[in-house]
Amino acid sequence: MTARVSFAFLIAILASVVASQESPNPSSPPIPEESSSPLISPEESVAPPPAPEQTPSASPARSARISFVPPPLEGTISLGIFDANGKLVRVLHQESSLSEFTIGADALVTQWDGRNDNDEDVPAGKYRARGYLVGRLKVEDLGQVAESPPQTNPGASVKVKLMPNPLANDKRSIINVAAGFDSDGSYLKTSDDLPLFTVSESPNLARVLVTKASDKSLDFWQDDGTGFHRLRISKVDQMMAFDCGEFQLK
Asked: Which pLDDT does position 171 carry in this prediction?
């Protein structure tokens, strides 16, 4: 239906252009009236307009192509760019589906524009892209609680054992995770600040904490100023790490 409508629209446009170029009543051209102004000789003709100002050409875009084979696990992908010191400089993908990547011949492909999370150009040098495929974690709301969490350090992290990635020599089967929050709500993140999984969409949070409940579950504590609300995240072992390797940014 769309192709048929577009073709008809194109025919209508062409017909109107042809009609506008044809004179409805052919007649002899009108005789120009004599101008009362004196004739201008070629020497007195108006000077040509100045040449347009040359604008400097834009510098080539800084772009790095990143490809990887996704681990064999159903879920979402979080991918970060890290500098040579292991510091996260850009959250390139956060809880993204496979459809948000370009499907290459034998891998998923994405691009990095050489900017950090503040939209600033980062220095040239070596960088590494790595991330996690997060499976179907489960969140259970345990409601507001009167007791305080076992520990009160908001920056504290806990160890989580991941599923080994059969596609790689996985050296990151155990990672440290921590609690994070922003104006959109709370989330589980790695200890180096890569967001992994949205826990809640509660606004106006003042602090969040995470503690170990069991080998495969965590307790997530969040305070909006009225007291702690506790949520339990289970199946936290349903994650796999992957590494896209190191590359040079010019």
From this structure: 65
